[in-house]
């Protein structure tokens, strides 16, 4: 910045050497600033307010710095394991899922029994997310919710190459 100021306001402001020095200095300063920002690690997110025991209801929320009474968190039951392995019918054919833990592989076979698409994904609680590749080498993603009885999945897909998108409904 100093070199730029000197090049603009000094007696020899018309000189090429001063302008080159000013521009080079600003470019290097910008690059070094970006490099420094890239090496920074994200800071921890701020702690949420914590309820303070024995406080009136209007002031129950306190910052973590205050003296607080912490009671153990209530235990939440483990989410029920959902197994989607097997064949599912859709409008465009038969989806065959293989599941190992939360990881999923699938193939979509058309009604003519030819492979249309295949992909991988995961199931977290009752939500299935998959990434797929079609035989025409286009690719996309789908997000499906499994019904409470585990007999239906519904959601949507989007082909990231063609832009085609729509609903998906599958039944066992």
3D architecture notes:
With 172 residues, this protein is of the alpha+beta class. The chain is built from 2 helices and 10 strands, in the order ααββββββββββ. It has helices at 2-9, 16-39, and strands at residues 50-51, 61-62, 86-90, 93-100, 103-109, 115-124, 127-134, 139-146, 152-159, 165-171. The strands form 2 sheets. It has an 8-stranded antiparallel sheet, with no helix packed on it. It has a two-stranded antiparallel ribbon with strand order 1-2. A hairpin with a 2-residue loop joins strand 3 (86-90) and strand 4 (93-100).
Q: Strand order, biggest sheet?
A: 3-4-5-6-7-8-9-10
Biggest β-sheet strands, sense, barrel: 8 strands, antiparallel
Determine the structural class based on helices, strands and strand pairing.
alpha+beta
How many E strands?
Answer: 10
Order of helices and strands: HHEEEEEEEEEE
Identify the overall geometry: elongated
First-residue to last-residue Cα separation:
68 Å
* Total of DSSP H or I helical runs spanning 4+ residues: 2
In percent terms, what proportion of residues is strand? Answer: 35-45%
- How confident overall, as mean pLDDT? 75
The residue fraction in helices comes out at 10-25%
Low-confidence stretches: 50-55, 57-69, 73-78
Q: Output the radius of gyration.
A: 29 Å
